[in-house]
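Minutes, project check-in
Item: structure for the 44-residue chain
Input as provided by the requester:
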Amino acid sequence: MSPDSSQSPPDRRGLTVLAWAWVGLPLAYGLYELVRKATQLFTG
């Protein structure tokens, strides 16, 4: 085993959560607006 194998990789859970939020929140808002506008379009 090499001496570097005792170190664990850096914890990037916070960065992963931030990246998903950066993409997911605007996507969720856009889908919400799409459904809201489509409902208005088809129901009058």
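Outcome recorded: The two ends are 69 Å apart (CA to CA).
No further action items on this chain.
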